[in-house]
User: Fold this.
Amino acid sequence: MSILKNNKLTPTKIISIITDNSPVDVYNLEVSKTRNYFTDGCLVHNKNPYRFVNEAGSIDNPR
Assistant:
């Protein structure tokens, strides 16, 4: 994982993961070309939505 620190991309280790099953709003952001973006200082990316197919054999796409 990488974080943005002092305007530089800095690799960092994940030292723990906390699971929280509370309902939350989620968003599917689309960024052209790389699909990478920063959120809360962390570099993240979206997966290709067409790569995953549901059990019925169709693609879930809310558009």
The mean pLDDT is 75. The two ends are 30 Å apart (CA to CA).
